[in-house]
C-alpha cells in the first residue's frame, strides 16, 4: 500500500467500511463526504481508463471494462465512486 493510500485509510478511520480497488492506488482522487452516509474512496475515472489502456486495452475496451466491472460493481454503501474532473471536462469540450 502506498503512503498516499495509508493517509487515505487514516482519514477514513479504523471503523471505515470503504472499499478500494486493488492495483489502482495511483488513481485515487480523494475521499467523498455525503450527508448521513459513510465516507467513500473516489477514483479519477480518466486515470482508471488510462491504467486499463496501459495494460493493453484499447480506449473502447477500457471504457467497456470500466463501465461493467468497476462502475457497475455495486457492493453496498462502501462502494467507491468515480469522478470526471473539471479539467477533463474542459478538455473534452474545448473549442
Note down, in words, how this protein is organized:
This protein is an alpha+beta fold and 95 residues long. The protein has one domain (3-92). 42% of the residues lie in helices and 14% in strands. The chain contains 4 helices and 3 strands; from the N terminus they run H-E-E-H-H-E-H. It has a 3-stranded mixed beta sheet. Strand 1 and strand 2 (40-44) form a beta hairpin. It starts with a helix and ends with a helix.
Keywords:
95 residues; alpha+beta; 4 helices; 3 strands; 14% strand; globular
One letter per element, helices H and strands E, the order comes to HEEHHEH
- Main sheet makeup: 3 strands, mixed
Strand order of the largest sheet: 1-2-3
Binned strand content: 5-15%
User: What spatial form do the alpha-carbon principal axes imply?
Assistant: globular
Query: How many distinct domains?
Result: 1
Termini Cα gap: 40 Å
Structural class: alpha+beta
Write down how many β-strands occur, each being a DSSP E stretch of 2 or more residues: 3
Tally of helical runs? 4
Runs in which pLDDT lies below 50 for 5 or more consecutive residues are: none
Radius of gyration over C-alpha positions, nearest whole angstrom: 14 Å
Helix content: 40-55%
Average pLDDT value? Answer: 92
Amino acid at each position: 500500500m502506498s503512503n498516499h493510500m495509508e493517509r487515505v485509510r487514516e482519514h477514513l478511520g479504523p471503523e471505515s467500511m470503504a472499499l478500494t480497488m486493488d492495483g489502482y492506488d495511483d488513481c485515487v482522487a480523494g475521499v467523498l463526504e455525503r450527508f448521513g452516509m459513510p465516507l467513500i474512496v473516489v477514483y479519477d475515472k480518466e486515470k482508471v481508463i488510462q491504467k486499463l489502456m496501459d495494460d493493453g486495452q484499447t480506449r473502447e475496451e477500457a471504457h467497456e471494462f470500466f463501465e461493467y466491472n468497476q462502475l457497475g460493481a455495486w457492493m453496498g454503501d462502501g462502494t467507491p465512486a468515480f469522478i470526471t474532473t473539471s479539467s477533463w471536462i474542459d478538455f473534452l469540450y474545448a473549442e
